[in-house]
Amino acid sequence: MRFPKSFLTTNLRLITAVALVAISLAIETPSTTAWKSFTPQINATSFGGTGLDYAFSTAIDTSGNHFVVGGFNGSTDFDPGTGTTQLTTNGLEDIYISKFNSSGDFVWVKRIGSTRDDRAWAITLDASGNFYIAGYFGGSADFDPGAGTSSLTTNDMDAFILKLDSNGDFQWVKQITGPASGGGVFNTEFANSLAVTSTGLYASGEFSNVADFDPGAGTSNLVSNGGNDVFVVKLDLSGSYQWAKSFGASGTEIARALAADSTGVYVAGGFRGTVNFNSAGSANLSSPDVNTVDAFLVKLDDQGAYQWATNVGNDVWGVAVDVAGGYVYSTGTFWGTQDFNPGSGTSNLTPVGQDDAYLLTLNTDGTFVRAIRFGGSLVESGRRVAVDASGNVVATGTFTTQSNSPVDFDPGAGTANLLAVYTDVYVVKLTRSGSFVWARQFGGSQSTSESIWRVTFDLDGNVVVAGSFVGTIDLDTSVDGSVGQSSNGPTNDDAFVAKMASSSGYTDTTAPTGSLALKTIRADTRSYGHSTTEAGKIYLVRDSVVVTDLASITSSADADWNVSGINIAGVNTPVVSDGLRDGIYYAYGVDRSENFS
């Protein structure tokens, strides 16, 4: 379809008609609640202040309440609604713990902090609704957010594990610490991942030099092999020590993620050189060389005994376990050809462009199931993964695309292309068998940066993501909606939490509509302003060219049309005719799902 309307006098509007049953894609008027509501997103919010604000982890209880933890500095209003709940840090960075109800209304926030640097990296809930928080602190900090006092002190940086009840009242706090530093030695311990089962609480992180992992009266020292080593420690739900293990070589090892089931614990991270993952024997993994980071996934049983270990790409950020299905998933990034099969077989993946994201599925005994690649011509990075009660898996990360090179997130025979404005966040849902369900994206302009720190499910199967951003971010994952949130400053991260429906919510199969007239274009550079309701492209095609579909435009190119298309998004986006010959041109609109008008 060709559109009759003047380039010079009228805006182009790309409007995608979306079919929904009893659901409107129109953005609702923001209420006084914390969430901003839209479909297929259920709700989303952001909060921040004068400094840096991060949402590193979130957990959801059986009533649908959302608990969010992270770090902040400066002064921050943690109530994103019409109210105000202002907190100010005691030191460089403090810990916050916030609660929102199932509708997204702000309930409360608590602060924990010393005069130094403190951060909460992880939160998880047990079956009784108690929640556990892990992170690190420096100096002296009171971990009782109520009227009482429960202070811990360190000369360096220590890990903590904190238990609060469902109301946020203090239960206990445990410290993982080393000897006081001195003589140029600085001891660090920090915990960044948690998982709880009926048999206890698992935490993983990193430590240097010597650390005592028994937070009680006993002693259980582990010694690092060089720089930072990875640890995993198990406590019972009363905080009593069970066991601890460590992995490391002469360099620095990285702890990234942890998951657990009734049979044991799965720890993912990075290493250099050769690392033995079996403290009672030999189970070595090696990176290509001592200067190259490789990724590992290791399983220990519930008593800490080694089960198996394998390489998983070049970088790993997320791990999740499907208890009913008997699968363990990991996601991260790889470059160059990689064999993801830890057994005798081969399952090579090669990135399409520079770096690609992967989603690896293993049986819980460590045997190979499948490996999936998400990639385009630039850089894609896997970040977090989660599994719902039905065995559906959601993987998240970031992707960057060129104007004419989207990323296909359907690992099967179908196509599910997403095109980033610059670098966007992707969220892709697959079934237990690896079949595609849906893929969504959100992000901002080239000046916006987004980080994904956590993905999880609520009891209804809705997907919840938490992270941070700088700039202005559109948290609406629908094609033609927009719910913009702006950070408080051009360089300061703000925190966000977004919840999206478990179903696909929409199928974008309708071409953009509108009208543009035949227009005489001069060969010199001209810029025409256009306003759009949907990101997409404009192709200017000489009237003598026969156009039947998008491929007939992009299959070849000369000065009769601009083969790469012109990205359009936002108000008065310039459409430049530079490089075209004098003549009369039609305009063709293409939305970001590549529907052709």
Can you characterise this structure?
- The protein has 597 residues and is mostly beta strands.
- Among the domains are: 105 residues, no CATH class; 125 residues, no CATH class.
- 1% of the residues lie in helices and 49% in strands.
- It contains 1 helix and 44 strands.
- The chain has a 6-stranded antiparallel β-sheet with strand order 28-29-32-33-36-37, with no helix packed on it. Strands 1-38-35-34 form a 4-stranded antiparallel β-sheet, with no helix packed on it.
- A hairpin with a 5-residue loop joins strand 28 and strand 29.
- The N terminus is likely disordered.
Provide a short characterization of the protein structure:
The chain is mainly β. Helix content is 1%, strand content 49%. Among the domains are: 1-17 and 510-597, no CATH class; 320-444, no CATH class.
